[in-house]
Design goal:
368 residues, 4-stranded antiparallel β-sheet, 3% helix
């Protein structure tokens, strides 16, 4: 896919008429990712499903299921060994649904009943001590779980943030200090359904527009992550009206309303709409590594290269990707037949060694 080149024109944040991608041949891209991998990461006799990666690509965090053990583990991409982090109490039910790693702390949300999004726990593993602590448990009212969206925790500088359903109605934004084991509520009530995002030293979330029953419309809010004091968002973020997912690095922020990908580099006057999902597809679970912004779609992962202004759909059907720091992790199913626990190949690339995606002339009227 080809984006209207994002650096030639500052698009108004509400103007999406020019976002008309076209298809390019990406067959040359995939071998480059494979050549730069650090090897096939496997645990013999186990089903391994990766859910995030360290920023330097040296650790891949996975869920593992064997005949006698199931839980969360870390795999070293340097030597292939694995460390068991936490064992699931109920291997047939427990699953990881949200995750984050800040270089020391791995944080994940654990869903205990696939039929009940309100039955969850948040746990944290300290890579220095090897200890696991439970950060939060799902609230209950009259002994019952509280309906709400999935819980997606994020962690930065030892502070965990997440949005959850409130026993009083609506949602709450929590900030939890892993060092002090102290929890506080940052915001409550009209909190949107999109996950919270750290853009250190700030935390970003959405205040919901009450007229939107899905909770995706509203305004972006910011606060100091350490003090909780409100901060005025930059104009590019203040212009956001529909927010589904957001990702941030030191140099790029990316977000989506589900159908359009926006990117903004701090210091630029406005965000740029750089990609529209094809009909029947959508954009979700954004992550950033270097100049690559990645996301998941209906049938597989996508990647946008901000150097060349191009987008490619990675060719593996029902595959996955995770990006952080300078590392891109690509998950390949060994079969195109869908199954509950498919055999997966896990590959890691240093994005600094990947050449820019190829460019092509845009067919979009009114763009350079």
């Amino acid at each position: 896919m080809r984006l209207p080149h994002p650096w030639t024109r500052a698009l108004n944040a509400r103007d999406t008429r020019k976002v008309q991608p076209r298809t390019i041949d990406v067959s040359a891209l995939w071998p480059k990712i494979r050549v730069l991998d650090r090897g096939l990461v496997e645990i013999p006799g186990a089903w391994v499903n990766p859910f995030t990666i360290s920023g330097d690509g040296r650790l891949v965090f996975v869920t593992v299921h064997t005949d006698d053990w199931a839980g969360v583990a870390a795999i070293s991409t340097d030597w292939g060994g694995n460390t068991r982090i936490f064992q699931f109490a109920n291997p047939d039910q427990d699953q990881v649904t949200g995750w984050s790693f800040d270089g020391r702390w791995l944080v994940w949300s654990e869903l205990h009943d696939p039929a009940d999004r309100g039955d969850w726990s948040i746990r944290a593993w300290d890579a220095e001590s090897g200890q696991v602590q439970t950060v939060a448990e799902a609230p209950r009212k009259d002994g019952r779980t509280i309906p709400g969206p999935f819980v997606f925790p994020t962690v930065d500088h030892g502070i965990v943030a997440w949005a959850q359903a409130s026993p009083e109605g609506g949602q709450e934004i929590h900030l939890y200090s892993l060092a002090d084991r102290r929890d506080r509520i940052l915001a409550a009530g009209d909190v949107g359904s999109s996950p919270v995002t750290f853009w250190w030293p700030y935390i970003i979330w959405q205040e919901r527009d009450q007229s939107d029953p899905e909770g995706r419309a509203g305004r972006v809010m910011m606060a100091d992550a350490t003090t909780g004091e409100p901060v005025e968002p930059p104009p590019a973020l203040a212009a956001i009206r529909q927010l589904w997912f957001m990702a941030a690095s030191e140099s790029v922020l990316a977000w989506t309303d589900g159908g359009i990908l926006w990117v903004w580099r701090p210091g630029e006057a406005a965000a740029r709409a750089v990609f529209r999902a094809p009909d029947g597809d959508y954009i979700q679970f954004l992550s950033i590594a270097g100049d690559l912004t990645t996301w998941g779609g209906v049938t597989g992962p996508w990647v946008a290269d901000l150097r060349s202004g191009s987008v490619a759909k990675l060719p593996q059907l029902y595959g996955g990707r995770h990006a952080r720091g300078t590392a891109l992790l690509v998950v390949e199913p060994t079969s195109q037949v869908r199954s509950r626990r498919p055999l997966l190949r896990i590959r890691v690339a240093d994005v600094g060694q990947l050449e820019p995606l190829p460019t092509c002339a845009s067919s979009t009227p009114g763009t350079d």
